[in-house]
TrEMBL record:
<dbReference type="GO" id="GO:0043709">
    <property type="term" value="P:cell adhesion involved in single-species biofilm formation"/>
</dbReference>
<dbReference type="InterPro" id="IPR011006">
    <property type="entry name" value="CheY-like_superfamily"/>
</dbReference>
<feature type="domain" description="GGDEF">
    <location>
        <begin position="303"/>
        <end position="435"/>
    </location>
</feature>
<dbReference type="Pfam" id="PF00072">
    <property type="entry name" value="Response_reg"/>
</dbReference>
<dbReference type="InterPro" id="IPR029787">
    <property type="entry name" value="Nucleotide_cyclase"/>
</dbReference>
<feature type="domain" description="Response regulatory">
    <location>
        <begin position="20"/>
        <end position="137"/>
    </location>
</feature>
<dbReference type="GO" id="GO:1902201">
    <property type="term" value="P:negative regulation of bacterial-type flagellum-dependent cell motility"/>
</dbReference>
<dbReference type="GO" id="GO:0005886">
    <property type="term" value="C:plasma membrane"/>
</dbReference>
<feature type="modified residue" description="4-aspartylphosphate">
    <location>
        <position position="193"/>
    </location>
</feature>
<feature type="domain" description="Response regulatory">
    <location>
        <begin position="143"/>
        <end position="260"/>
    </location>
</feature>
<dbReference type="InterPro" id="IPR001789">
    <property type="entry name" value="Sig_transdc_resp-reg_receiver"/>
</dbReference>
<dbReference type="InterPro" id="IPR000160">
    <property type="entry name" value="GGDEF_dom"/>
</dbReference>
<dbReference type="Pfam" id="PF00990">
    <property type="entry name" value="GGDEF"/>
</dbReference>
<keyword id="KW-0597">Phosphoprotein</keyword>
<dbReference type="InterPro" id="IPR043128">
    <property type="entry name" value="Rev_trsase/Diguanyl_cyclase"/>
</dbReference>
<protein>
    <recommendedName>
        <fullName>diguanylate cyclase</fullName>
        <ecNumber>2.7.7.65</ecNumber>
    </recommendedName>
</protein>
<dbReference type="InterPro" id="IPR050469">
    <property type="entry name" value="Diguanylate_Cyclase"/>
</dbReference>
Length: 442
């Protein structure tokens, strides 16, 4: 049996290293493969027990709390789910990994409020289990946007998704869902009924793609219509899956889980492609890909926004004096400080060399100027220790207001012009249209 490690899984090693898992499995082959897979791909510490007696002893010891248990239903000394019952009674969340599975077993398991159930002998069952454990340990970071005009159906579907440890955002019509996406709601996966009151399923996919581009969340369609062509049209429009109603809960859970796991792996690859190799913030490519969409969203909401370009003053002189290694330390320091202040609300990237860009989400000229002043003062006050020597730096910032839809290059060019003015005026300052107006007024 061979475990495949994706880039996303390799990057998740540090993510769960503080977690401890209880593996309850009596088959040696599965126990070995699962322990290796969970530890090597997720970084979690795994304690293995092959019997209910061993589980009781481990939980009684209480040396460290378990974040999650993976439990086989049938153990040598507990053939009738007694192991699962004991784990749940001990307040340890559980995922079932079993070879014995039928409709009766499924109903019995779902009634016990487990986080999921993976059948051992199905294709890629270990990979699916690792993805389910990752999702459970991540605890709600996978967010599903659920769109269904029928309130009762929407409530039932939301309950199914939450049972899989998804965070759920609900909408009754396509327009409401699009407003949530425009407002910046972090959505990983969209599940929608195709019979919406204000838009077709295919039309919704087209609108989402036009607004979110290549980073658009994948869309799964649901329908109780018998027309087989509806599924074909939905998939041709770009949907990732289509599920006919009524469906078996296990099928729905498996399909949604697989789509979510695939999306997480894709997001991990995109993060790698979007990251600057040195500073670990976004790179120029991501800034130019994501920026136009964020501007469009702000303007659609009727908000003004702003773009800033900042540059480390006298950086070439610093490199020539201290060397490129010290220059790299300074760049990393500046990136960390900027990221701490800018956070996730606005788009921050290294544009190249010692130049950084910030696209503000919904800040008008005055608020963006005040924000940039705070950045400038924070970096001026900060100290950088390199080779036992304390260095100080300053930055210059050019800030341009965005009021109408134009080519993204035009916004950046305007900010560059203000940056040139800031440097020409003596550096260590913010220059914008407001600055010029203040000078003229005085």
């Amino acid at each position: 049996m061979r475990l495949r490690r994706t880039s996303g899984q390799a990057n998740s090693v540090l993510k769960h290293r503080d977690k401890r898992l209880l593996l309850v499995e009596d088959t040696r082959m599965f126990a070995t493969a699962l322990k290796y897979g969970l530890e090597s791909t997720l970084g979690a510490r795994v304690t293995h027990c092959g019997t209910l007696e061993a589980v009781k002893a481990e939980l009684a010891a209480g040396s460290d709390e378990f974040s999650l248990a993976v439990v086989d239903l049938n153990l040598p000394d507990a053939p009738n789910c007694e192991g699962l019952d004991f784990v749940l009674a001990s307040n340890v969340p559980a995922i079932v990994f079993t070879g014995a599975f039928n409709d009766g077993t499924r109903e019995q398991i779902l009634g016990k409020d487990v986080l999921g159930c993976i059948v051992k002998h199905e294709p890629q069952s270990i990979e699916r289990l690792i993805a389910a454990v990752d999702r459970a340990l991540t605890d709600g970071r996978t967010t599903v946007l659920l769109i269904d005009p029928n309130k009762a159906s929407r409530c039932d579907l939301a309950e199914l998704l939450r049972r899989q440890r998804f965070s759920v955002v609900e909408a009754s019509v396509a327009g409401e869902a699009l407003r949530l996406l425009d407002a910046g709601e972090a959505i990983d996966l969209i599940v929608t009924d195709t019979d919406l009151n204000d838009m077709t399923g295919a039309g919704l996919i087209a609108e989402i793609r036009s607004r979110q581009g290549e980073e658009a969340a994948p869309v799964i369609g649901l329908s109780d219509h018998g027309d087989a062509r509806l599924a074909a049209r939905f998939l041709e429009a770009g949907g990732v899956d289509f599920i006919h109603k009524p469906f078996v809960e296990a099928e729905f859970s498996a399909r949604v889980g697989q789509a979510a796991a695939m999306q997480k792996r894709l997001q991990a690859l995109r993060r790698l492609a979007a990251s600057d190799y040195l500073t670990n913030i976004y790179n120029r490519r991501h800034f130019f890909l994501t920026g136009p969409r964020l501007v469009e969203q702000c303007l659609r909401r009727g908000e003004r926004t702003s773009i800033a370009v900042l540059d480390i003053d006298h950086f070439k002189r610093l490199n020539d004096t201290y060397g490129h290694e010290i220059g790299d330390i300074v760049l990393k320091h500046v990136a960390r400080r900027l990221k701490a202040i800018v956070g996730e609300e606005h788009l921050l990237a290294r544009l190249g060399g010692e130049e950084f860009g910030i696209l503000f989400n919904g800040l008008d000229a005055r608020r963006a100027y005040d924000f940039c002043e705070r950045l400038r003062l924070e970096l001026e006050r900060s100290k950088i220790v390199a080779d036992d020597e304390e260095l100080t730096i300053t930055i210059s910032i050019g800030l341009a207001t965005i009021e109408a839809q134009e080519a993204f290059d035009n916004y950046l060019h305007a900010a560059d012009q203000f940056l040139y003015m800031a440097k020409h005026a003596g550096r260590n300052r913010v220059m914008s249209e407001l600055t010029l107006l203040d000078v003229l007024a005085s």
